[in-house]
Write a structure and sequence with these properties.
It is a single chain. It contains 4 helices and 6 strands. It is of the alpha+beta class. It folds into 2 domains: about 30 residues; about 120 residues, Nuclear Transport Factor 2, Chain: A (Roll), CATH 3.10.450.50. The protein has a 6-stranded mixed β-sheet. α2 runs antiparallel to α3. The termini are far apart.
């Protein structure tokens, strides 16, 4: 009985080693042209979303936000697509800049992580809002289905 368990353990270890090597090879594989195009389209959608939010461009927001869209705010509030579409633009003089963007695609879905540096007015101290956005490929293009935001503590507070 002990030998069978030992053999089984070795079989699992071999399977695990092979799976680890295969996953490593996939991770190291260069991006395909389709992946590069998807990443570019998703990054453009992120910037278009920011621009549409700043300008109050409802038509652009309707194209970008999936019908099932849900947003979780830094304070834990949830709002759906209709509530997000009815929100007004940020205050005049405020600014937002996207940084640290990373895109991961999974066939017809994608996850974007990054930081939205927000200033309520030009001379104000910025607030960094870290986010995770989930996109899906639709016949209309990439649309965001979910966004979760958290305020990043200042470096001294971390």
């Amino acid at each position: 009985m002990g030998g069978r368990l030992h053999s089984h353990g070795r079989g699992l270890a071999t399977t695990f080693a092979v799976a680890t090597l295969a996953l490593g090879a996939l991770a190291a594989a260069p991006a395909t042209a389709d992946e590069v195009a998807d990443h570019a389209a998703i990054l453009k959608a992120e910037q278009d979303w920011l621009t549409a939010t700043e300008s109050g461009d409802r038509a652009a927001l309707e194209r970008l936000l999936h019908p099932t869209f849900v947003n979780i705010s830094p304070l834990g509030g949830m709002r759906n697509r209709a509530e997000s579409l009815s929100a007004g633009p940020p205050p005049p003089g405020s600014s937002q800049t996207l940084t640290e963007l990373k895109v991961r695609t999974f066939r017809d879905s994608a996850v974007v992580t990054g930081v939205n540096r927000y200033r309520p007015e030009p001379k104000a101290k910025p607030t960094d809002v870290v986010f995770t956005d989930v996109f899906v490929r639709t016949p209309q293009g990439w649309q965001v289905v979910s966004s979760h935001n958290s305020i990043r503590p200042a470096p001294a507070d971390r």
